[in-house]
């Protein structure tokens, strides 16, 4: 099973293995769950340009998981986001994404194809850390926790987003001199 991995930016330390990743993220108050990727039809596991019909196919493949998560945590709407080199202005989009920010509600992503990274500001002793996500990984960054999201080298991802209120997801810039992109 593919699983998320953690990289602590200050030390370069990596954390892998389900139990370790879970324990670390729990301490950082980041929700982490995993969905069974076998539920997704094979032809959608490596497809990054999606028709509306295909997006709906993904949502129905994971309908049970989505509704369970929504019921537990109060999400009211959900959709699919797909990014790849076929996305118009991907470089500009990524530049915009890669700014540390906060939201007034938590940011939930369930990766259904490809890879992505959440960079999150952890507790004082940890500092910034990366969560490298793969298909099946589900994460929620708590409200008010500084973070940003970006792609990995393959530059392609499909994810389910869940919202309490789409308006709660507006990014508020978080200016942090302690953050270095190069780390
Ligand atoms: Fe965000």
Automatic annotation (TrEMBL):
Cited function: Catalyzes 2 different reactions between oxygene and the acireductone 1,2-dihydroxy-3-keto-5-methylthiopentene (DHK-MTPene) depending upon the metal bound in the active site. Fe-containing acireductone dioxygenase (Fe-ARD) produces formate and 2-keto-4-methylthiobutyrate (KMTB), the alpha-ketoacid precursor of methionine in the methionine recycle pathway. Ni-containing acireductone dioxygenase (Ni-ARD) produces methylthiopropionate, carbon monoxide and formate, and does not lie on the methionine recycle pathway.
Co-factor(s): Ni(2+); Fe(2+)
Pfam families xref list: ARD (PF03079)
The species this protein was found in: Paenibacillus cisolokensis
Sequence similarity: Belongs to the acireductone dioxygenase (ARD) family.
Keyword set includes Iron: yes
Enzymatic class: oxidoreductase
InterPro entries: ARD (IPR004313), ARD_bac (IPR023956), RmlC-like_jellyroll (IPR014710), RmlC_Cupin_sf (IPR011051)
Sample GO molecular function, one term: dioxygenase activity
The enzyme's E.C. designation: 1.13.11.54, 1.13.11.53
Site note May play a role in transmitting local conformational changes, residues: 106
Residues where Fe(2+) binds: 101, 103, 107, 147
Keyword set, alphabetical order: Amino-acid biosynthesis, Dioxygenase, Iron, Metal-binding, Methionine biosynthesis, Nickel, Oxidoreductase
Lineage: Bacteria, Bacillati, Bacillota, Bacilli, Bacillales
Xref: Gene3D superfamilies: Jelly Rolls (2.60.120.10)
Pathway: Amino-acid biosynthesis; L-methionine biosynthesis via salvage pathway; L-methionine from S-methyl-5-thio-alpha-D-ribose 1-phosphate: step 5/6
Site (Important to generate the dianion): 109
Cofactor note as given: Binds 1 nickel ion per monomer.
Designated gene of the protein: mtnD
Protein name according to UniProt: Acireductone dioxygenase
